[in-house]
């Protein structure tokens, strides 16, 4: 389910049958267990590392040991909230100018002992707006970004 | 601005989503889009009209063909893009967390 927020924000929500602490830890330190594998910034990512602290990074590690840092942890308040930056350019390179990055805020609310509401807001999307012009071609080079989505849709259903 | 609302609604249809996804790889003609799809070429044209109205797709004439591509101007496309991505990612998150929970 998604709802409309500001024009520059995308909002998504999911309810999970798990305690809030577990939802938070799987989302953060367990990110590699659920992140769509075709949506890594490099081809041969073997591990996704989430550094659980403000100022930490989220990075992908490739088979040859290269670390690709694609997010900065801006807020870290377990088990209730989290904010990280989205330091990926419209051409799927790493954005080094923080002014041109967007932000992902996630909140975790206990709805019961084993039920958690997870609300995600990806805001400041206009920061990438300028590059959207080249995005069309760039997205093609990602090869499988959309194909991957279909696979996850199936996995989520099955 | 309800352009984004239109974009979301336009992508609510599975066939239009498939057309949109096909254009992610670059501009295509109606014929090329329709190839391998379970709907007719006129149907694809109709869906393209809806996508165009929603600001997701634009078209231009090249030689004697009309090529459709993702609209590079607005935020509608990038929003639609992340909207889809996060929905699927959170779905995968839900699946992962609920599957592993069953294990001791």
Structural class per helix/strand content of chain A? Answer: alpha+beta
Strand content bin of chain A: 35-45%
- Which strand order spans the largest sheet of chain B, edge to edge or round the barrel? 1-3-2
Q: List segments of chain A where confidence is low: pLDDT < 50 over at least 5 consecutive residues.
A: 1-6, 131-158
Q: Strand arrangement, largest sheet of chain A?
A: 1-2-8-7-6-5-4-3
- Model regions low in confidence, pLDDT < 50 over at least 5 residues of chain B: none
Number of extended strands of chain B:
3
Question: How many beta-strand segments of chain A?
Answer: 8
Number of helices of chain B: 5
DSSP helix fraction of chain B: 55-70%
Identify the biggest protein-protein contact and residues per side: A-B, 47 and 37 residues
Mean pLDDT of chain B: 81
* Rg for CA atoms of chain A: 16 Å
- The helix/strand order of chain A is EEHHEEEEEEHH
H/E element sequence of chain B: HHEHHEEH
Can you put this structure into words, describing what you see?
The complex is a heterodimer of chains A (158) and B (104). Chain A is of the alpha+beta class and 158 residues long. Helix content of chain A is 23%, strand content 37%. Chain A is built from four helices and eight strands; from the N terminus they run E-E-H-H-E-E-E-E-E-E-H-H. Chain A has helices at 20-27, 31-34, 132-142, 145-157; strands at 2-4, 10-16, 45-50, 57-62, 67-77, 81-86, 102-112, 115-123. An eight-stranded antiparallel sheet of chain A has the order 1-2-8-7-6-5-4-3, covered by helices on one side. Chain B is α+β, with helices and mostly antiparallel strands and 104 residues long. Chain B is built from five helices and three strands; from the N terminus they run H-H-E-H-H-E-E-H. Chain B has helices at 3-10, 14-23, 30-34, 41-53, 76-101; strands at residues 28-29, 57-62, 65-70. A three-stranded antiparallel sheet of chain B has the order 1-3-2. The longest helix of chain B is centred in the last third of the chain and has 26 residues, at 76-101. The N and C termini of chain B lie far apart (50 Å). Classes of the chains: A alpha+beta (158), B alpha+beta (104). At the A-B interface, strand 2, helix 1, strand 8, helix 3 and helix 4 of A face helix 1 and helix 5 of B.
């Amino acid at each position: 389910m998604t709802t409309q927020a500001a024009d520059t924000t995308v909002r998504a929500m999911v309810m999970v049958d798990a305690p809030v602490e577990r939802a938070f830890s799987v989302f953060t330190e367990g990110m590699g267990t659920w992140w769509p594998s075709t949506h890594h910034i490099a081809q041969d990512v073997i591990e996704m590392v989430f550094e659980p602290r403000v100022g930490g990074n989220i990075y992908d590690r490739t088979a040859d040991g290269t670390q690709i840092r694609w997010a900065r942890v801006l807020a870290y308040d377990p088990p209730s909230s989290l904010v990280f930056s989205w330091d990926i350019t419209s051409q799927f390179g790493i954005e080094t100018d923080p002014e041109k990055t967007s932000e992902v805020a996630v909140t975790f609310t206990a709805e019961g002992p084993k039920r958690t509401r997870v609300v995600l807001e990806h805001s400041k999307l206009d920061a990438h707006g300028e590059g959207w012009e080249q995005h069309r071609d760039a997205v093609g080079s990602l090869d499988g970004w959309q194909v991957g989505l279909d696979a996850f849709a199936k996995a989520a259903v099955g | 601005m309800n352009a984004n609302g239109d974009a979301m609604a336009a992508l609510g249809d599975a066939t239009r989503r498939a057309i949109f996804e096909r254009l992610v790889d670059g501009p295509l003609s109606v014929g090329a889009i329709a190839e391998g799809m379970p709907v007719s070429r006129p149907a694809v044209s109709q869906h393209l009209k809806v996508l165009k109205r929603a600001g997701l797709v634009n078209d231009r004439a090249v030689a004697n063909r009309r090529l459709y591509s993702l609209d590079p101007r607005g935020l509608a496309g990038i929003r639609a893009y992340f909207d889809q991505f996060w929905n699927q990612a959170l779905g995968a998150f839900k699946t992962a967390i609920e599957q592993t929970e069953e294990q001791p």
